[in-house]
Amino acid sequence: MGSETRAVEMRAGLAFGLAMCVSGTLGVMVVEAGTDPVTTVFWRCALALPVILLYAAWRGLLKPPFPPLKLWLLAGLSGALFVGDWIALFAAYCLIPVGLATITLNLYPFITLGLAAVVLRERPGWNALGWIVIAFGGFLLATGLLGLGGTWDPLGIILSLVAAVFYAAATLVGRFLKAMPALLTTLVQMSVGVLSLGLFIAPVGGMPETSWFWLAAMALGPTAGSYVLMNLAFGRARMAVIAVLSFVYPVVTAVLDALVYGRVLTPLQILGFLLIAGASLAVTFRWPLNPFSSRRQPEAAG
C-alpha cells in the first residue's frame, strides 16, 4: 500500500471518527431543545436539508444522469424508517438516560440479522447466533433488567428497542441502495421527514429561543455536519476502521450524559455495553465464537 493511499485512508478514518464524536452530542441537544419528538425530528430535517442540498449541488450530484425511480422509492422507504427511528429514540431520551438509550439502539446489527433471516431467508449461522446471545446478555446488564444495578423506565427501553428495529429495517433497505449516491439518499430521507411531519409539529410561535438554538445546532452538527463527514469517509476508510469507530458515538453520548446530567453508567451497565460492542464487532468481522477453533464456521452473507 502506497503512502498516498495510507494518507487517504487516514484522513477518511479521522473524518469518520469526527463524525461519530459530533453525532454523540445529539442526545444532549435533543433534551436541551425541550420540544416534543415529532417537532424535533421535523426541524432537524428541515434545517439540515438546505445544507446537505448545497453540498450535494457542489459535489455535482444534482444533475443528470439520475438514479432510476426504483432507487428513489427505496430511498423514500428508508427515509420513512429513519423518521420512525428518530421519533422513537427522541421519545426514549425523555424517559431514560440518553447514554442508555443509545446503547440499546446499538442492538440494531443483531436485529438486522434477524430481519434478514425472516425477509431475505438468510441464515445467520450458529456462530452469529452465539454472539447474538452474548449481545442480549449485554443488553440485560446495560438496562438493569437482571436486577443487578441501574435504573430504567420500561417504556424508555421499549422505545429504544423500537428505534433499533426501525434502524435495522433501514439498514436492510440500504443494502439495495448501493448504486445511489449516499448524499442523494440522505436528501430523500430528510425530505421525507419534512413532508411527513410538517402537519404535526408544535406551533412555531410558542417555541422559546433556546429551543431554536439547540434545534439549529442539532441540524448543523450531528445531522448535516456528521453526514458530510461520513460521506467523505465512506469508500475511502477501511471497513475495520469504520466498524471500530462506530462505537465512538455511544461512548461520547454516555460521557456527555454523565458530564451534563450526572447520570453515570454503573460498572455492570458499562460491562453490558462492552459485551454489545464486542459482539457487534465479532459479527461484523465474523470472528469465531470459540477463539481456539482452528477454522471459522461458514456464515451467510451480511
Structure description:
With 302 residues, the chain is mainly α. The chain has one domain. It contains 13 helices and no strands. Helix 5 (98-105) packs across helix 8 (154-174), helix 6 packs across helix 8 (154-174) and helix 7 (125-143) packs antiparallel against helix 13 (267-285). The radius of gyration is 19 Å and the shape is globular. The two termini are 27 Å apart.
| Strand-pairing-aware structural class | mainly alpha
* Total count of strands: 0
Give the SSE string: HHHHHHHHHHHHH
User: What percentage of amino acids are in beta strands?
Assistant: under 5%
Distance between the termini: 27 Å
Largest β-sheet summary? none
- Uncertain ranges: 296-302
Q: What is the percent of helical residues?
A: over 70%
Number of domains: 1
Task: Give the topology.
Elements: H1 3-23, H2 26-33, H3 37-58, H4 69-93, H5 98-105, H6 108-119, H7 125-143, H8 154-174, H9 182-197, H10 209-233, H11 239-245, H12 248-261, H13 267-285
Helix pairs in contact: 1-10, 1-12, 2-10, 3-4, 3-9, 3-10, 4-8, 4-9, 5-8, 5-12, 6-8, 7-13
Task: List key phrases describing it.
mainly alpha, 13 helices, 302 residues, disordered C terminus
Task: Write a short abstract of this structure.
With 302 residues, the protein is mainly α. Helix content is 72%, strand content 0%. InterPro entries: EamA_dom, EmrE-like.
